[in-house]
Design brief:
Helix content: 25-40%
Order of helices and strands: EHEEHEHHHEHEEHEEEEEHEEHHEEEH
Number of strands: 17
Number of domains: 3
Largest sheet: 9 strands, antiparallel
Bound molecules: adenosine monophosphate
Distance between the termini: 41 Å
Shape: globular
Structural class: alpha+beta
Low-confidence stretches: 366-370
Length: about 375
């Protein structure tokens, strides 16, 4: 089985490693000089939407997938007649536009924060009156890791924010004073077999995922989040891994966004679950059934952003695993992560806190698990 993957970043690298374990071969498209996934397969060094590179990928591979969301959907449509492309390009098209994403949540009865479409300065003023302040203005497209977002706390900011962002289609979102954030990750194959990992609690700093912990021991929340996940998977006739991020607010679960791909908040599944998100994604897109998503302990994950300090390489504790993506350090860039795996939630929280203090001088979650 040969898997074509658009993008050869760290998600491609982790997919490529899982593919090697399954005996699959990977072929990537990525224009960068030394992409992280290069160690796990052949890289066609062309733009993600290069027609020749895509045609070659389609001709050489049994199935094509993608590891990031800014792949032009037209590029996927162009090869979908020749080779199966999973997750479905139609799901990617929705995820690429926050307005379409929110309308899907509405259609599927998945609760979400109040929102308004913003096409003018006046829309922004009306949204502030309707949603109240603070509110968040987000670009509809090409936002990631908190980029393309501004929080409006004062009506006097409106002019400046419109001048800054108004050239692009926007949405306004009510500010959610959430208790904490969670994500639910599920996988489905073309025959409709579904598996869902335990709920994960996430902490973001400056819009970037800082750390994750799983499982969240709250059965009621898991039941609701997995009902939403099931609704999305079947509505989208989805194949592969899907991640849904939600706010937990006074016991309400409000959908923030979804990602039609393997997800940073699921990295703990490599060590912490019977089957990782990467392996199950590959099984699902290659026509096999996903295998057990049960967790094998209490896992925590800490992202290494901007640098991998020497201390991160010096742990001699079998409960601690370092993943180095082999990327050139740059401020704000995700360079690696550390997973901890413990027998209890308390042990996991202590270990994650210790690791975070040693590695980054920060604390992972400002308290205990939900
Ligand atoms: P996003 O790119 O939409 O996932 O936003 C990045 C992060 O910003 C989220 O994970 C939250 O921590 C925060 N955030 C985004 N939207 C809101 C909101 N409406 N209310 C409160 N925090 C938000």
């Amino acid at each position: 089985m040969r898997i074509g993957i658009i993008g050869a970043g760290q998600l491609g690298q982790m997919l490529g490693t899982a593919a090697q374990d399954l005996g699959f071969e990977c072929r990537f498209i990525d224009p960068s000089d030394s992409p992280p996934a290069g160690s796990t397969g052949t890289v066609i060094r062309k733009a993600f939407d290069d027609p020749d590179a895509l045609a070659q990928l389609a001709a050489d591979c049994d199935v094509v997938t993608y590891e990031f969301e800014n792949v032009p959907v037209e590029a996927l449509h162009a090869i979908a007649d020749v080779v199966p492309v999973y997750p479905p390009p139609s799901a990617l098209a929705i995820a690429q536009d926050r307005l379409h994403e929110k309308r899907l949540f509405d259609e599927l009865d998945i609760p979400l924060p109040g929102y308004r479409v913003i096409d003018s300065r006046q829309d922004m003023q009306a949204a502030a009156a309707d949603l109240g302040l603070p509110m968040v203005i987000k670009t509809r497209r090409f936002g990631y890791d908190g980029k393309g977002q501004v929080v409006i706390r004062d009506l006097q900011q409106i002019d400046a924010v419109w001048d800054q962002l108004g050239k692009q289609p926007l949405v306004a979102e009510a500010w959610v004073a959430f208790d904490y954030e969670v994500s639910i990750i599920g996988v489905r194959n073309a025959q409709g077999a579904v598996a869902i990992w335990p709920l994960t609690q996430n902490k973001h700093v400056d819009g970037i995922l800082h750390s994750s912990r799983s499982p969240v021991e709250n059965h009621g929340l898991f039941e609701r989040a997995s009902a939403y996940m099931n609704r999305m998977l079947s509505h989208l006739d989805y194949v592969g891994v899907l991640a849904l991020e939600l706010f937990v607010c006074n016991d309400a679960l409000l959908a923030n966004e979804f990602a039609p791909r393997v997800h940073n908040s699921g990295h703990w599944t490599i060590e912490g679950a019977d089957t990782s998100q990467f392996t199950n994604h590959l099984l699902a897109i290659s026509g096999q059934s996903p295998t057990s998503t049960a967790c094998s302990g209490h896992a925590g994950m800490l992202n290494l952003v901007g640098e991998i300090p020497a201390a991160a390489r010096q742990f001699e504790d079998e409960r601690i695993s370092l993943h180095d993506y082999d990327k050139t350090p740059r401020p704000g860039r995700k360079l690696g992560h550390i997973t901890v795996l413990a027998a209890s939630a308390a042990e996991r929280d202590d270990l994650l806190q210790t690791v975070a203090e040693i590695v980054t001088g920060s604390t992972p979650a400002g308290g205990h698990s939900a």
